[in-house]
């Protein structure tokens, strides 16, 4: 599948808007509260904001130390 900017993505829990993380770093579904794996998918899947905005030409990537613009 592709988003509106032509970036390919996989429809699964890893790209879902409804995923949440516990304080231990485990991925859980915010609807069911169950632990999910990255490749899982259900009928309630919604595109995550990161996937939706991937390819948008409005952001920049900065060096973590110098804050120089690396990409953008």
Provide a concise account of the structure shown.
With 72 residues, the chain is mainly β. 7% of the residues lie in helices and 15% in strands. A hairpin with a 6-residue loop joins strand 3 (61-62) and strand 4.
Protein traits:
two-stranded antiparallel ribbon; single chain; two-stranded antiparallel sheet; mainly beta; 72 residues; 7% helix; flat
Strand-and-helix sequence, N→C?
Answer: EEHEE
Q: Which structural class do you get from the secondary structure elements?
A: mainly beta
Number of helices: 1
- Poorly predicted tracts of residues: none
Q: In this structure, how is the largest beta sheet organized?
A: 2 strands, antiparallel
Classify the helix fraction into a percent range.
under 10%
State mean pLDDT (0 to 100 scale).
84
**Rg calculated over all Cα atoms:** 15 Å
- Major β-sheet strand ordering: 1-2
Structural account:
By secondary structure, the chain is mainly beta. It has 1 helix and 4 strands, in the order E-E-H-E-E. Strand 3 and strand 4 form a beta hairpin.
């Amino acid at each position: 599948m592709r988003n509106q900017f032509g970036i390919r993505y996989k429809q699964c829990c890893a790209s879902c808007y409804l995923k949440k993380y516990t304080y231990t770093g485990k991925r859980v579904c915010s609807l069911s509260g169950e632990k999910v794996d990255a490749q899982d998918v259900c009928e309630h899947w919604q595109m995550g904001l990161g996937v939706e905005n991937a390819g948008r030409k409005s952001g920049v990537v900065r060096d973590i130390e110098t804050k120089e613009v690396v990409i953008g």
